[in-house]
Amino acid sequence: MTLHLPEIPRGFLKRTQKNQAPKSFLALDIGTASVKAALFSFLDNGHVTLLGFGRAHAEDSAQIADAGLSAYNSIKSTAENPYPVKNIIFGLSAKECYLTTTSVKISRKNPQSPITQKEIAQMTEKIQNTSYIESAQALADKIGSDDVQTKLLNSDYIYTKVDGVEVANLDGYKGETVEASLFSAFTTTEKIAELSKIASDLNLKTAAITSNIYTIVKAIKRKAGLSGNRVIIDIGGGATDVAVIFGGGIAACLSISLGASDIVDVIAKDLKVGIPDAQKLLDMYVGKNLDAESVAKVGGLIAKVAQMWSAGIEHLFKEFEGIKVFPGEIILAGWGSAISEYKNSLTGEWSKDIPFKSPPVFGNFGADYLDFIKSDKKDILDKEGATLSLSLAAFELWHH
């Protein structure tokens, strides 16, 4: 295997340009079965306004670019935006990334001297170089290639300690030992090239590429602070990502190739309708707009898929390494979080063999975590919170 270690980015967010903050920007959530687009503008108080939202189905990866164009065009035809859109932020599911957490313990030569920014930067670079090697090997296994080039998307400290005492910022502290745990997200240079092509087709500049889980956790951390120990289950179209959060940071993240699009496929096959009609039936079911007979048919199919999904989630929890006890609070996010059968399938006996700190309690990632977004469309905030959280990348990118 050939490993390529590019220069470590200076920031924690993978940026492709350093321009003045724009008036508006587009966020494009690249899923495994669909593409979602959200158009935002900055407000004077540092918050953002949601100007429009669109979604397009993609049968496979070859249709992602067309789906992105379709989702964006659906917004442009309805949204009122007085500002020209020039920048795009991409969000990737955990399936398209490699997420890793690396912990280190370092003995300092001069414990009486204050920790400097230079010392912190050197430690970060050392951890990230280790993570680069690990990510290249993991992504090579995932895509079946011996020659993989990886790029860092996001990096964020889960915790930092000096002589065993946790501190919010190492800068200026004195001590003999420093402990740190750093979360990092990587993807391949090939994936970045694909996204750059989509941006070019949309006549936009790529401002940032991030992982969805990263911005979801950022939103939760804004609300809960460092005490936010939780499990996040992000139910996308073709995959579900499960992230374990300690101290407001991602300790571990795994994925399964099951999601809400499996329900759409089953509805289409069983009721002998096309994918678009099956999607409409699911949306109408979630919105409680179906007649009683259709509710019984569609609900029965959803329940079967949800049981299969919950079995996959139970198995996934047992695959986590290094997690002795899971937080009892579980936040459901993503497209599938609006489908009650998913949450219902996780109640009862499924968790008895999983070491939770307390019996699982469920919540949804929605409007309550997105108070920095101004919108009168609470239904979109509740259903599409995972996509809308990508706007936090703009805050970090342009320092609003």
From TrEMBL:
SUPFAM superfamilies: Actin-like ATPase domain. Coiled coil: none annotated. SMART domains: FtsA. InterPro entries: ATPase_NBD, FtsA/MreB, SHS2_FtsA. This is SHS2 domain-containing protein. GO terms for biological process: cell division. Transmembrane segments: none annotated.
